[in-house]
Amino acid sequence: MYVIVTLSKLPQMSKVLREVTDELRRMFDSARSIVVLTGAGVSAESGVPTFRGGGGSEMWSWRGRPITELSSAELLATDPALVWEWFDYRRGLLKELTPNPGHFALAEWERRFESFALVTQNIDDLHRVAGSMNLFELHGNIWRARCLRCASTFEARETPLESAPACFVCGGASRPDVVLFGEMLPEGVFERAEEAASRADIFFVIGTSAVVYPAASLPILAKQTGAKIIEVNPEQTDISFLADVTVLGLAGEILPQFISGRAH
Q: Cα(167)–Cα(180) distance, rounded to whole angstroms?
């Protein structure tokens, strides 16, 4: 495993690190199939509050209730109105936020490769706003609702909400279309992500320590099927031992540099 301080500091690097960086760019330029797994670290660069680690310490509770309870399937069953209030509060924090250069770089990658898939654990929709299309949202999307009667999904971007959105199809009550604690991932989305990971030449792990399953199994699968694993995080994580290359730094600073010299 190589650890690169940051691509932007290349002139200050040793000869060994420059050689590793050159090899990393050659790997990227010659790849035909790229899969990316992103986590909260990418969105945090846009100002999205995180709920794991120091950046989200002030958010561990809301109205005196722990977030693990507010975002749970159990509370949805007993008090769906409170669940909607909690998620609408979160939507209010997100509504003015915009994608950062890391989001836009990934959307550009998708346009430049024969095969590209972006798997995200984030629910904020910033990847889609930035232009990513082949997107697997493992944990759902905070700006969508799902009908509790007919299971139809629909956009629900109004915030603040006066009441829970009604289903556009049958008029039934709805819920946020996100994966709550105690729930399984949406049917089919993880299976498609696994299929993409198994075909990858390079698998990127960006802005996440990749310790939450089942998402954490994707880089392992990719490694087993021959992919190179490249990690981009501000510091080494539990996934670093698996990575072929770990690039230390912010996604918004590093990801655009991968395409800065790539021919269209």
A: 20
